[in-house]
Amino acid sequence: MIAARIAIAAALLAVPAGLTGAWIRSADTRLTELSRAPAELAPVATAADVGYCSPDLKRILRRVLTSCGLVGGNAARGCQPVQARSVATMSGHDFNALFKPMQDRGGIVQFDQDKFDLDAGDVSLVDQVFADQRGASWFFVVARASPEGNSLHNRELSKQRAEAVMSHLRQQFKDPDLDKEVGMLWLGDEYAQLEAEFCAWKRSSTASCNTDQLNRSAFVAWIDCQL
Amino acid sequence: MLVGAVVGVVFAAVSTYDFVQHLDRQVHNLHCSFIPGVSHAGESGCQIAMMSPYSSVMRGRVWGGVPIALPALSVFAFLVFYALDLLVTRRKGDPRATGFLALAAALPALASLVMLLISLTQLGTTCKLCVCIYVASALCLVGGVGLWRRAVRDRGGAPAPGRRGPDHEPAFVGRARTGSDARLIAVAGGETSLGFVVAAFAIGVGFVVVPVLLYLAMAPDHARFIGTCEGLAHPDDPYGVMLRVDRGRDARGTPAIEVLDPLCPACKAFEQRLQASGLAGRLDRKAVLFPLDSTCNWMVTEATHPGACMVSEAALCAGDKAPEVIAWAFDNGERIRDAARADPAAAARIVKQRFPELASCIGSPDARSRLNKSLRWIVANNIRVLTPQLFVDKVKLCDEDVDLGLEYTLSTMLGRRAHGGLATVPAEKPAAEKPAKP
Q: What is the mean pLDDT of residues A60-69?
């Protein structure tokens, strides 16, 4: 009788103890196997690299950014027109074509003739475009001057326009990465003048658009490419 | 009674199995059904119950803790044993022996009642498997009490303990010796001794203690995974985007950074588990917002949590009131997500309605830029695209440890950190094959 009772007790005690022991061993085995196998992990967060970032575009970008001091350890800030032409090694038309896919990522800040100060509309457009960084790594400010006046003056005017935008960004956003992500180019009237089709872009002026007005400007855009 | 105990054994075993299989740190289907063994994928009452802090005990001592289904299984197994023992020893008419059975059956019944109340009041749901255990407990209690009452009633007409039979001969249970004059006058003659009850109690304790000790002894060593899940390369906050999560944080606590989405249900659940664990108070926790909403987050192709960008902007705009915004977002996440899914502008309206003082900031270039910097911080630290994630002093709490293993892993991490031993370590690699000897 006692033996039977002990046997029943042992058998029933074995239910929780034995089952649990077996299940734990099984889980432990799986745990060890899984820890040795490559785990399926969520993707790592990265900056954007969208479809228009072709190898050609990236090559040009790298040259421009290196020349402008954003990559490669060059401390220079901004690119001279001749440098821009040399790093791009392409026609002004082709140079402008690089930026056409960025229409919804950029805008054209239009200045009054021979002026480089930003009015309320300009500020609003710059803020709007810059705040919409998303995954972009680079912000380009490409300033231009219309053909009136001499080339030397136009280059200086173009530079002042680019710097006006940069100065506003620095003041408005207090972004510690500003100097690492904003590339400035100032072009005179002899290279890569904007064509009429850029009138379709977001502009700070609501006035009718012609190419002279369009080139008294600073083109601003985020570029969603990784280098 | 016996049927109830056997049903209890079956369902408590299934529940224990469901819990134990998670010791491999993976996600598994649960057997959430009134039919034992039928599995159920996805969210269910069983899932909520199992992931709640009420599903196990000693969570700080062993990964996941000891599932309460295990002692339940043990108690039901003991009830089966004891009921069978009463049958074998013919004590089912004994008031003391059956009284102990009724008392023993009251234990799972009481526990079931408590768990049912917790389910209804704290979890807001019930789990089918648990309901089966509740029913089994009730059956045991009804059976146990019924048996005891019948024994008492029957004993009312029978000789009281210590009294002799009608002819003053001793009554007993068992085989009479040859030549003895003793007669079998009742199924159970003299009442069970107190020693029997004490022994039964001790056996019952053994039924619970042995499996629990075995569980503690055999549980896998999960501490080996601490520090194997990446870390923060740049934990500093150059953009000023880190927010406080809770108002009552301890500035002397261990620095921790949580990557969260204010509209992410998993983040809300994680926050609840963290608060329930009592470990939140030991952290000096800051949050970096990582809304999984394609409106502002280029790393996701669709709005996993619609409206999360707008709510994140609100939290960034709120400054010191960020904990209030995040807590509100957790509480109203489902409503905001549903509204934003139907109308993308709805999230902004809802947030501005609740926090009118933030209306001018939400959607502004500055707010958008700050949110973007929050995402850039995520990129700079090579963080994986999921939420929530917790980094304790630059070391990530592994994603596999954010639910069942939270208390154990986090308390172990805090302990290691206190002793200067918390660091990222390389994950375990497959053993390299030994080169063949020449």
A: 76
The model's pLDDT over A111-142, given as tens digits with 9 standing for 90+, comes to 999 999 999 999 999 999 998 888 998 998 99
- Report whether B90 contacts B154 (CB < 8 A): no
Residue B9 backbone zone (phi > 0: left; psi -120 to 50: alpha; other: beta): alpha
Instruction: Please give the residue of chain B at the shortest CA–CA distance from A38.
Output: B429
Bridge partners (DSSP) of residue B288 are B259
Phi, psi of A148 (to 5 degrees): -60, 150
C-alpha B255/C-alpha B392 separation (Å) is 6
Nearest alpha-carbon partner for A166 in A188, A141, A129 = A141
Domain residue ranges in chain B: 2-162+192-217, 243-418
**Neighboring chain B residues of A41 at a CB cutoff of 8 Å:** 384
DSSP state at residue B238: T
- The answer, for A13 touching chain B at a CB cutoff of 8 Å, is yes
CATH of B243-418, one of 3.40.30.10, 3.30.70.660, 3.80.10.10, 3.30.1370.10: 3.40.30.10
* pLDDT attached to residue B33: 78
Strand-pair partners of A141: A184, A220
Residue with tokens 């745990």: A31
Say if B428 is an interface residue toward chain A (CB within 8 Å). Answer: yes
Q: CB-side exposure of A82: number of CA atoms within 13 Å? A: 2
Q: Count of CB contacts below 8 A, A vs B?
A: 151
Q: Tell me whether residues B20 and A34 touch, CB distance under 8 A.
A: no
Output the six-digit token pair for A143.
């300033």
Q: Which residues of chain B have pLDDT under 70?
A: 37-43, 157-190, 247-251, 426-438
Which residues of chain B lie closer than 8 angstroms to A19, CB-CB? 13, 16-17, 73
CB neighbour list of residue A124: distance below 8 Å, 6 or more residues apart: A204
Q: How many CB atoms lie within 10 A of CB B429?
A: 8
Decide if B298 and A134 are in contact by the 8 Å CB cutoff.
yes
Q: Would you call B385 helix, strand, or coil by DSSP?
A: coil
**Contact (Cβ atoms closer than 8 angstroms) between residue A165 and residue A185:** no
Instruction: For the domain covering B2-162+192-217, report its CATH number.
Output: 1.20.1440
From edge to edge, which strands make up the β-sheet containing B243-244? B243-244, B283-289, B254-260, B389-392, B395-397
Pairing of strands B56-57, A217-223: unpaired
Tell me how close the Cα of A135 comes to any Cα of chain B, in angstroms. 6
Q: Do residues B62 and B406 lie in contact, with contact meaning Cβ atoms separated by under 8 Å?
A: no
The predicted pLDDT at position A74 comes to: 55
- Contact yes or no for A45 and B375 at CB 8 A: yes
Is the predicted pLDDT of residue A8 greater than 80, yes or no? yes
Shortest CA distance from A13: residue in chain B: B207
Interface test with B, best of A2, A5, A8, A31 (most B CBs within 10 A): A31
Average pLDDT along chain A: 87
For every residue of chain A, which 3-state class applies, written as one string?
Answer: CHHHHHHHHHHHHHHHHHHHHHHHHHHHHHHHHHHHCCCCCCCECCCCCCCCCCHHHHHHHHHHHHHCCCCCCCCCCCECHHHHHHHHCCCHHHHHHHHHHHHHHEEEEECCCCCCCCCHHHHHHHHHHHHCCCCCCEEEEEECCCCCCCHHHHHHHHHHHHHHHHHHHHHHHCCCCHHHHEEEEECCCCCCCCCHHHHHCCECCCCCCCHHHHHCEEEEEEECCCC
3-state DSSP percent of chain B in helix, strand and coil, to 5: 55, 5, 40
